[in-house]
Amino acid sequence: MSTASDLLRSLYTMAMMVEARDAYTGGHLWRVSQLSRLLAESMRLDAEQVARIELGGFLHDLGKVGIPDAVLNKRDRLSEEEYAVIKTHPRVGADLLRGHPLAALALDAVLLHHETPDGRGYPHGLPGAEIPLVARIVGVADAFDAMTSTRPYRAGMPIARALSIIEANLGSQFDIEVGRNLLQLGEGQALAHIVGHSEAGIPLQVCHQCGPVIALPRRVGDGDEVYCPSCTMGYRVSRTGSHAVLQATGNAQPVQARQPQADHDLIDDMVRAGYRALPRPKRGLLARLLA
User: Fold this and answer.
1) What pTM does this model have?
2) Most buried by CB count within 10 Å: which residue of 72, 120, 126, 242?
3) Share of the chain above pLDDT 90, in %
């Protein structure tokens, strides 16, 4: 039988490997999970709810495993047909997750994070009162990160601009209570250490050749070489603590650049933090395993 830590680690690893296919969203899962956690804490939810919501934020895009690369990594805006393909990812993710022993911890976040209060979301078109709180929180966090993240066809918005859009759409696209809590967090500068980062204290880097982001795992040290996941250009890293400078090497490596890799250091951190999301009978086991 798998241990509790193995089960949690398998969920985080699955999610990270799916994200690794996307050349343009490095660190998105970490950012959404941390934004979701901050929102849950600001709403004074109990520790177990907070942990479940943080887990749901990290797993919400599992279903993108079923999106073709040509759509997932398209450099231009999506056509209506391509957007229809993207909209299948909540159902695909839920189907993928259902057989997992810990599925109940994150299923609502995975399936329902694109539902909206006005009932125009997907996949079910649920009105606001019928959308579980975890999905409302993860949905707001996901949208905010999408707005503040750089894409090949646009730069990420400043935090203030993204918050103003959320404020203008409270009650229609965004849950009123959750959105207002995000606005308060933004006023207090509590979001700046998450926006534009791939994990705590590690800012995203930008490819000088094609623009998409490069997420530097903490294991990458001074003098190591990394590759842009989009154009595959190589960069030598000059690193001092969290500060990094990338110098193009002219050495493109398509196979190495596009090989999905899991950041096991970050996964270990998430597993340690996520034990609170387990049903109480399993907590003691996980706490002993991670001691």
Assistant:
1) 0.92
2) 72
3) 66
